[in-house]
Write a structure and sequence with these properties.
single chain; mainly alpha; 7 helices; elongated
Length: 149
């Protein structure tokens, strides 16, 4: 391994540790919310699911951050927003009351808020935002650098 490859691996690892650190804490907090607010036997499944997604996300996001040359601070900010958003989403999902019997009988329809919170698309969209913000941040930085030259 050359010196540049070692430095690149070191930077990648720092981005990965920052992202994984935030998301590991998030996985713990989400599993605790599941234990106290939901069905307590599913807390471990929630921890494993969010932990696995966090591992995949952190690996891909660290690579993107390294390729775009974004700072460790931006990694912390983008993943921090993801963590807060994920915690809020899980909390809303666990505390949202839906009378499924009334919905099944056709007596009631889900409100837009209930549809958004219960949607799988909303959950998966959470993980796309840091990638979009990272690329946008890189684009803005590149344009500012070109204007200075």
């Amino acid at each position: 391994m050359s010196l540049n490859q070692k430095a690149g691996w070191h930077c990648y690892f720092k981005h990965w540790v920052i992202a994984m650190g935030f998301l590991f804490i998030t996985a713990i907090l989400c599993s605790l919310m599941q234990y106290f607010l939901g069905i307590d036997i599913f807390w471990f499944i929630v921890f494993i699911f969010i932990g696995s997604l966090s591992l995949i996300f952190s690996s891909l996001f660290a690579w993107l951050q390294l390729e775009t040359g974004n700072s460790y601070f931006s990694t912390g900010v983008f993943v921090g927003f993801l963590s807060v958003y994920l915690l809020l989403y899980i909390y809303l999902d666990l505390t949202l009351f839906i009378d499924w019997a009334a919905v099944s009988a056709g007596e009631m329809q889900l409100s837009l808020y209930q549809k958004i919170v219960r949607s799988d698309f909303t959950f998966w969209l959470l993980f796309v935002f840091p990638f979009i913000f990272s690329v946008a941040h890189f684009s803005v930085r590149s344009r500012i650098a070109k204007r200075k030259n």
